[in-house]
């Protein structure tokens, strides 16, 4: 299941590639001067490849990497054959936009590495091209690409992250959790490692709200979220998917480890918590929604068993 952010990311990359293709196509069709158009032709071809890769639904994995590589390479391909320095500026703007895109949608370390590669390739293209560019441009071009990516990309990334956070507890909301879980499952699939999903449900949370008020209920949610976050392994993530429902996703975690962690998370805190556990290896029929459904079933099975045991104890 794609996250809510994945379709937006796909549309942005699709729009960028389509606009570039239209621009380079217009140059190829209308230009009648003594100008080497091999760069524009190569750039247009790269945009066509990107669009063919992007158009099918759910742009993920190797297809996304290929589409992004083509989108980054197209403006650089165009500047390789420019004979006039004014033409080199045409390539700078799309490179700035794609750098902003990368910085907005990827983790900072990954984004910065990609942007640095794009900036270095741009400098190489300026040196290879027949146009005699000023030496200052070798600093100005990468400076604009990297600087704009950091400023605007950081802002966009912050806004996106805020939209994917639960405003009360600051853990991921459902959309954010799905995005984080997709990344964890993708890494697990490459490594052949198991992934654990732990469902957490606060027992009789409605009674807390009814008896002590919603402000106290909010404080309970915040305290539990802080406690759970502090107990999680480094690469694990936690999200709030309902009023009193939370989900933890833990990479490289086997059944016994997951159960031990679930018991620890459910045993401590200001109020009792029920847990459910599901562990699986990633394949086509075992995705995050599948593991979450299994964890929910385990949680409600445990709740029923607890209620039946309590009822039997009262009868005795």
What does this structure look like?
The structure is a single chain. Helices cover 68% and strands 9% of the residues. It is an alpha+beta fold and 316 residues long. It has a 4-stranded antiparallel sheet, sandwiched between helices. The mean pLDDT is 87.
Compact summary:
This protein is of the alpha+beta class and 316 residues long. The chain has helices spanning 5-30, 38-54, 61-79, 85-105, 108-128, 137-163, 174-191, 205-212, 214-231, 255-267, 288-315; strands at residues 194-202, 237-240, 245-251, 273-281.
Percentage of helical residues? 55-70%
- How would the global form be characterised? elongated
In whole angstroms, how far apart are the ends? 48 Å
Largest sheet: 4 strands, antiparallel
What's the pLDDT, averaged over the residues?
87
Strand content: 5-15%
Category by helix and strand content? alpha+beta
Radius of gyration: 26 Å
Low-confidence stretches: none
**Strand segment count:** 4
How many DSSP H or I helices? Answer: 11
Strand order of the biggest β-sheet = 2-3-1-4
Order of helices and strands: HHHHHHHEHHEEHEH
């Amino acid at each position: 299941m794609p996250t809510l952010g994945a379709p937006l990311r796909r549309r942005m990359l699709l729009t960028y590639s389509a606009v570039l293709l239209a621009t380079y196509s217009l140059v190829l069709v209308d230009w009648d001067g003594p100008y080497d158009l091999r760069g524009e032709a190569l750039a247009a071809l790269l945009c066509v490849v990107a669009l063919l890769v992007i158009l099918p639904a759910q742009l993920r994995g190797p297809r996304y990497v290929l589409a992004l590589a083509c989108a980054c390479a197209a403006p650089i391909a165009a500047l390789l054959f420019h004979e006039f320095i004014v033409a080199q500026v045409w390539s700078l703007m799309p490179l700035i936009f794609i750098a902003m895109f990368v910085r907005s949608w990827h983790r900072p370390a990954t984004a910065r590495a990609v942007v640095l590669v794009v900036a270095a390739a741009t400098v190489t293209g300026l040196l290879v091209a027949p146009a005699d560019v000023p030496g200052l441009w070798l600093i100005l071009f990468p400076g604009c690409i990297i600087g704009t990516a950091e400023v605007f990309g950081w802002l966009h990334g912050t806004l996106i992250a805020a939209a994917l956070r639960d405003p009360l507890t600051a853990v991921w909301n459902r959309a954010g959790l799905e995005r984080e879980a997709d990344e964890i499952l993708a890494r697990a699939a490459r490594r052949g490692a198991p992934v654990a999903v732990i469902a957490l449900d606060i027992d009789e949370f409605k009674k807390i709200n009814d008896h002590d008020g919603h402000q106290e209920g909010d404080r309970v949610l915040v305290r539990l979220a802080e406690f759970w976050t502090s107990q999680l392994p480094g690469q694990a993530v936690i999200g709030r998917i309902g009023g009193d429902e939370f989900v933890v996703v833990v990479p490289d975690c086997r059944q016994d480890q997951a159960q031990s962690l679930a018991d620890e998370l459910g045993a401590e805190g200001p109020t009792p918590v029920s847990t459910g556990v599901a562990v699986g290896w990633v394949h086509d029929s075992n995705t995050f929604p599948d593991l979450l459904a299994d964890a929910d079933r385990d949680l409600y099975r445990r709740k029923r068993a607890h209620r039946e045991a309590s009822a039997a104890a009262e009868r005795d």
